[in-house]
Amino acid sequence: MAELSEQIRRAILGRNPLVYIHSSEEDRIIALIGDLARETADGAWPVRQWSCVTGLDGATAGPDTRDPLAALQVLLASRERGFFVMKDLAGFLTQPQVVRALRDFYYNNRGRLDRFLFIVGPELVIPEGLRKELHLVEAPPPGEPEISREIDRVMAGYPGVGIPDEHRPEIVLALKGMTLAEIDHVLHRIFQAGEQSQAATLNEIFNEKEMVVSKAGFLEFCPPRLSVANIGGLANLKDWLARRKALFSQEAIDAGVPTPKGLLIMGVSGCGKSLAVKAISSLWNVPLFRLDMNLVFSGLHGSPEAAFHQALKTVETVAPAVLWIDEIENSLGMTEDSIEMASHIFSAFLTWMQEKPPLIFIAATANRIHALPAEVIRKGRFDQVFFVDLPDDVERREVLEIHLRLNGGTPDDFDLKMLVIQMDGWSGAEIEQAVVSARIDAYAENRPFNMRDVNAAVARIVPLSKTMEAQIKGIRDWAFDRATPASRRSRRGAY
After folding, report:
1. Pick the CATH number of 2-138 from 3.30.565.10, 3.40.50.300, 1.10.220.30, 3.30.430.20
2. The CATH number fitting domain 393-485, selected from 1.10.10.60, 1.10.238.10, 1.10.8.60, 2.130.10.10
3. Higher model confidence: residue 491 or residue 435?
């Protein structure tokens, strides 16, 4: 809480009597104001609160102080020293009399060190008449020391249950971006369940973050169900992600090491771009959220520009996180049909990429790479641009073995060498479809699937490498000197 308390302390030391604290964490803010009141005046100054339901604390017989103007008039008429907190005043700041009363409080108490009025609430409404008088504090979420103290406080109520020291840094990092109340709720659920694995603890935290973003409506939570072991090939990409796992941490930030900003994965459709993005979540132990641009452009949440801005703010509240933008060339309106309409969103996104918090990693995928403007792929925008091509023979074997196992088969029961040759030029999605189709055919006859079923499925599939040969060649030519291969190319036939 040091950063937040320092912001409020600076307002007090600057003798600004009117402070607007933008935060939904009412209890946390009021507790902090109480600490500062005791620190500033040796505990002699009261902290009096106001709400439109209960009125002003300590108000004697007189006007009904549930009315904000009446409460402000009581404060203006009084010379009482202290800290005064008005909760959820934003809804009343359209009233000229309330604005005038706040201005009067400011000018009557400017320069004093013993009377301060704090406006606290989740809505940020600053009338034109108060822009010069209000000192604005944007309350950040709890930092690591505060989260750690909250873990200790809640854990004390559950003897025999705790978080191992070796897991604590990762749990604290996962809890970042949540309010203190949300942290409290999720910790009680975790400790109530008794001793459990780190994965189960992280899953509970991610579920809480899923609920947070669901309220906004723009983001889809992608559960961390897929590991890199379920992805065949793409060795360069997987190594790149593994090497940067330790860099995506508060320790790396404190050490001054640049954190990963993001990557762009482009290439042939069906070759594992989306799978690779989904695997980041389980590899790095951070939640993955997919930005639904259809909802942004739908108009259900106001103008697309405002909705997009709100979506990015929501991502920031749940950091650390991975933000997935699928088919970025379409999502941000980069096609010729929509670029004029979405130019403001595109510009805002590029600016946000440069200024976003360090613990938000952007994972973007693209199919039609010719539609990507130079501004997106220039150096410094993404850490790396990877090109995903059709799998070679070694990778096809890996993909085939994975899907045979996932569908209940045993790779040794199949002629993998023959299938790899038959599937030359196939994408990973096409290999998966052949195995799934074989299993469905066998299931219909109430028997395990076998080599004959897979052969029959292979004969029915015409791969993209044949139906879209010219387009794939164009993609390869474009990416040749513009992107890093996601795979390590092997010699044909080398297993």
Report:
1. 3.40.50.300
2. 1.10.8.60
3. 435
Query: Per-residue pLDDT tens for 395-447?
Result: 999 999 999 999 999 999 999 999 999 999 999 999 999 999 999 999 999 99
Closest CA to 94 of 126, 66, 118: 126
pLDDT of 336 strictly over 60? no
Residues belonging to the chain = 495
CB 400 within 8 A of CB 428: no
- Strand order, beta sheet including 321-325: 219-222, 288-291, 321-325, 360-366, 262-267, 384-388, 484-485
Q: At 350, is the pLDDT very low, low, confident or very high (cuts 50, 70, 90)?
A: confident
Residue 144 pLDDT level (bands cut at 50, 70, 90):
confident
Question: Does the structural domain 228-387 have CATH classification 3.40.50.300?
Answer: yes
- Give me the mean pLDDT over the 22-32 stretch: 93
Q: Where are the domains of the chain?
A: 2-138, 144-215, 228-387, 393-485
Three-state secondary structure string covering the chain: CHHHHHHHHHHHHCCCCEEEEECCCHHHHHHHHHHHHHHHHCCCCCEEEEECCCEECCCCCCCCCCCHHHHHHHHHHCCCCEEEEEECCHHHCCCHHHHHHHHHHHHHHCCCCCEEEEEEECCCCCCHHHCCCCEEEECCCCCHHHHHHHHHHHHCCCCCCCCCCCCHHHHHHHHCCCCHHHHHHHHHHHHHCCCCCHHHHHHHHHHHHHHHHHHHCCEEEECCCCCHHHCCCCHHHHHHHHHCCCCCCHHHHHCCCCCCCEEEEEECCCCCHHHHHHHHHHHHCCCEEEECHHHHHHCCCCCHHHHHHHHHHHHHHCCCEEEEECCHHHHCCCCCCCCCCCHHHHHHHHHHHHHCCCCEEEEEEECCHHHCCHHHHCECCECEEEEECCCCHHHHHHHHHHHHHHCCCCHHHCCHHHHHHHCCCCCHHHHHHHHHHHHHHHHHCCCCCCHHHHHHHHHHCCCHHHHCHHHHHHHHHHHCCCCEECCCCCCCCCC
Burial of 94 (0-12, 13-18, 19+ CB in 10 A): exposed
**Structure pTM?**
0.77
Q: Is the confidence at residue 494, as pLDDT, over 90?
A: no
